[in-house]
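Following up on my earlier message about C2E. Here are the inputs again, as you asked, copied directly from the submission form:
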Amino acid sequence: EAKATGKANYVVFDCALRDKAKARLKIENEIRLAIEREEFSLLYQPIVSLESGRTESVEALIRWKNEDGELIEPEEFISIAEETGMIVPIGNWVLREACRQIAQWEETLGPLAPVCVHVNVSRRQLALPNFASFILETTQHYGVEPGRLHIEVTESMIMHDREASIAILCDLKELGFKIDIDDFGTGYSSLSCLHAFPIDVLKIDREFVSNLNHGQDFGALLHTIVALADNLNLKVVAEGIENTNQLTLIQALGCEFGQGYLFSKPLLPEDLEQFLRNDAARPPCHWDVSPIQT
Ligand code: C2E
Ligand code: MG
Ligand code: MG
Ligand code: MG
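Thanks, got it. Here's what our run produced:
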């Protein structure tokens, strides 16, 4: 009897595994087709100067609306796309689309156009031998100055293969691109070796921001990070600012830039245009007075 039950369990387990593998294969195939079907789009989230309250830059964030019209979050498909290598064509599309958008905003918004667009890249892309020349050609094709493109890499990505990462980031930097460390603070070990990397911006992980009022530690650590960034001449962006309480704490710590739902969720290009026009019409430093205007 015990044997029979054991067998039945195997069958159940087998089916669950098979279903999982099937679902996985399905999503892999869908990702493969999604580019041709033009199912990806980019949203843009404002990065705000905490001194002036103005939006100077935006981060491009990918969205996927599949064949059935379902919205799939990047968290659900980026890692699969990374494992299968599909992140390369997707990432190339993202870079092209971001450059096309910068050029278009230049026409539609003129002086109100975002100065910089921050683009997330994956480890696979960074490891491509022709990555730097691909980005350069893309910016040239759209007539975009390299300095308007920030390449966001994560701490864990560059710590994984330090020497190779330093080399490629130096190449990018030499071509005029800006380099951001995204989700900073999630791997503490790197604090001491930051100086080895040619970085322009530290983006503080939103975990820090959301934990700021839960005890002293996060505040003290953030204070240290901001001081270090200052020493290294890096700009600091605090991610995930959701309320004025967090904004006040972040400002008190000397953080220069912020990003988060308090200012705006990621927006469609046309909504971002409206946001920037509204922004320009308001007095500076209006966030503490009237948060969330969209
Ligand atoms: P990330 O680069 O750290 O982007 C910030 C994420 O935080 C975004 O999630 C954004 O919508 C979210 N966020 C912004 N403000 C707030 C806030 O106030 N509260 C909360 N709770 N969340 C906030 P999203 O768009 O879902 O993207 C998730 C991650 O997926 C990104 O994290 C990035 O690692 C990756 N990703 C997004 N687009 C791309 C892409 O084009 N290429 C690659 N390789 N990765 C991408
Ligand atoms: Mg990012
Ligand atoms: Mg981040
Ligand atoms: Mg992230």
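One observation from looking it over: Confidence is low (pLDDT under 50) at residues 289-294. Hope that helps, and feel free to reply on this thread.
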